[in-house]
Design goal:
- The protein is mainly beta.
- The protein has one domain: SH3 type barrels (Roll).
- Strands 1, 2, 3, 4, 5 and 6 form a six-stranded antiparallel beta sheet that branches.
């Protein structure tokens, strides 16, 4: 259950280091929950790191079952970022959100 780590980062106001799609990413968690299909998700603002799309910064919706590791980074989150809206429509169940 990776959502625990995502919610811990959100609740502590810290950034999260994620290993995802073969890249290390530093993200700010805005929401974590579950889709209608049962997939664990988190809505994040990526601060830095790699990505398949080559978009190194910006909004991402990540599947937590596709992460290989998560860890809280001792860097303050700047969440909420512009454009964030509570009640993420990608999630049927929201475990935590800003």
């Amino acid at each position: 259950m990776w959502w625990h780590a995502a919610c811990d980062a959100l609740n502590s106001g810290k950034r999260l280091e994620v290993r995802y799609d073969g890249y290390i990413r530093i993200v700010e968690v805005h929401a974590a929950g579950e889709s209608s299909k049962g997939d664990e998700l988190m809505r994040v603002w990526q601060v830095r790191g790699g990505s398949v799309s080559n978009e190194r910064m910006g909004w991402k919706l990540l599947r937590l079952d596709e992460t290989t590791s998560l860890g809280i980074v001792d860097e303050a989150s700047e969440a909420p970022r512009q454009g964030y809206r509570r009640g993420d429509s990608a999630m049927d169940i929201i475990r935590c959100q800003i």
